[in-house]
Design goal:
Length: 364
Amino acid sequence: MVLKIEKDHQRFRQIIKGRIRDDLRRFLTKSELIGKEGKDVISIPVRGVELPHFRYGDNATGIGAGDGKEGDVVSKGQGRTAGGTEPGTHIMEVDLTLDELAEILAEELKLPRIEPKGKHRLTTIRERYRGIRRVGPESLRHFKRSFKEALKRQLLVGDYDPDRPIIIPQRKDIRYRSWKDVKRPQSNAVIVFMMDVSGSMGEEQKELVRLESFWIDTWLRKNYEGIESRYIVHDVSAKEVDKHTFYHLREDGGTKISSAFRGAKSLLDAHYSAEEWNIYLFHFSDGDNSSEADSRECIKLLKEQLLPVCNLFGYCQVASAYGSGNFINVLHEHLRHHEKIMTSRVNSKDDIYDSIKTFFGKGR
């Protein structure tokens, strides 16, 4: 019975995931998910699915059954408007972890698993139960092994009666699980998010960046156990900031994209060796830059310093009425065929779906 219920529950979960997959584009644009991480449980409204439940009674009775006659008034309502005639829409909220939602994202977008590079530097220590011993706390008592020892003892001394198979463990029969600390290597990754915060980047553009970077972070955390996120903002100069400042700071100066690339290089040199870390760089901008000379400097920095050490450089250009939108063309002109460069345009929230697929479709 338990197995059947478990199978029914698994089947129901598959139905739910199917409905979420069908509506995935909408879920990718839900701002309220920002701030959640891997194992956090989130509630997602799913239309057209009802929870399985018991129905009591039979079809012999129901609404309208009783001693009344046709035409009798049942009650006098107080409202002045007529009741609705259309059926209601069933909406149910289901709980999923962000990891589960990321898995649905991967299945729908056909994202391949990322193969980490570099050495395993960080380690975690975990307890693993790998043996049996005669002493230990009662919480670790191994009941099956204890009864097995008691049975062996009774068989050896002739106390076991197959017609009355009673097994009574004694103190010397009790066995306990034993454990040892196991060091487990982790694949390390760092994500460096860079964003233009000049005057041409308004709240609408930053909302697109928040959503895009949230799903980038979520997918990479699904693939790596040890991961860090760092944040750099820039106008004509760059500086590292915390996560909250990254999403809310706005300046009114000009734009010099090379300052962000130099800031990222300094950060990597100081803290993240390419031999030990998987490095992901993402830059968000409306495509405006101060000069063609600085754009050429950006290409030089990418070719000589950033691309040789990173797994992926992603450039996401968000639409702005005030930005020139030209920097993506510069990247296409000089680095279109470079295997580590990925670019995407995000003009609205609906474009995030395709942008994530563009960045991670090759499993880097």
